[in-house]
What does this fold into?
Amino acid sequence: MGKSYRELGFWSEGLGFSESIDKRATYDNSSMKTLGQILWPGGPLYTPRGWTVTSGGQVLKIGVPTGSTFKQFVDIVYDDHSENNFSFTGFSIEVFKATLENLPFHLPHKLIPFYGTYDQIVEEVYLKVRD
It folds into this structure.
């Protein structure tokens, strides 16, 4: 258990979620509903209790690495006009946002720049400093 995965589909800018990457096809799939059933940990076909966040739940603090060599995947720019003074862009950020939009519940979160190594961010997740 916990050592397998199932590919549901793909995400691409302009097409959104789809079962295949075919730029000639037309898609009306702003949601993940076209991708089939989600397999939740433990095997249920329904959204398990506990996976929905209550309105009083805490905000997820998501550390985003700042030292990315590939800015097309993750880029963080200081922006004094944004909510937390940083603007997060790139392919990985767009996939994350699209996934959040398609969750069957609201997931309060905050992206936070992380100025450390990947080992350090994993340690902070383990210590519950970040989610």
Q: What stands out?
A: The radius of gyration is 17 Å. DSSP finds two helices and six strands in the chain.
